[in-house]
Amino acid sequence: MGSPDEPRYIAVEGPLGVGKTSLARALVTEFRARAVLDRPDENPFLRKFYQDPARYAFSTQIFFLLSRYRQQRELARLDLSTQATVADYLFAKDGIFAQATLSPEEFELYQEISRLLDLDLPRPGLVVYLEARPDVLLGRLRKRGWDYERGVGSAYVKRIAEAFRQFFHYYEETPLLVVNCSDIDFVERGGDFADLINEIRGMRQGVQHYIPLGSR
Q: Looking at the domain covering 9-215, what would its CATH class be?
């Protein structure tokens, strides 16, 4: 990132299938940044969760929480001013899934653990929140073809998308760029990506909504 006013740490967020990791990788290349990427394949409970959510939701969320905590602790030891950083998740996002999948008692315990872990973690200079219609999200999940997601239905996709929408409606912790990406492709269409880069470079404080021309 060239300008000192540009965020040194960007987190890309959004619901299942919205394209977080693909965009994060593109931003890593654009800004010559270090990548901090989620590693869902390393979670031994994830496949079991999709088969039996009630039984494995808590184990799945705790594994994700601790895995992301370790990554963020490593990041906290680095000097973020020397190199830009792009992550394909926001640490707080884990709680979105937890609230949507855990029982009230499990979620209360989860929150206690999460609050303790979150005390000294680095905060992004900008969060880019990608949103899309549930039918688009489901189509993208089907297209990427991860075998353990084959049983994911439209009801679950809608529930998670709504949980993200509610979370970011009240989000005020960092500058937030909300991007409607239902009808655009930042990876395949260079013009879409270039326009988004301009929005990111011009982002300052508060919340900004970006509705690309292709989405109107």
A: alpha beta
pTM of the model: 0.89
Instruction: Could you list the beta-strand ranges (E) of 24-173.
Output: 34-36, 85-87, 126-131
**Closest of 33, 151, 53 to residue 100, by C-alpha:** 53
> pLDDT tens-digit profile of 74-112?
999 988 888 899 999 999 989 999 999 999 999 999 999
Distance (Å, rounded) from C-alpha 101 to C-alpha 99?
6
How far is the C-alpha of 107 from the C-alpha of 44, rounded, in Å?
20
What is the token pair recorded at 180? 């409607």
Question: Domain ranges in the chain?
Answer: 9-215
Angle made by CA atoms 114, 120, 123, in degrees to the nearest 5: 90
Would the pLDDT of 5 be above 80?
no
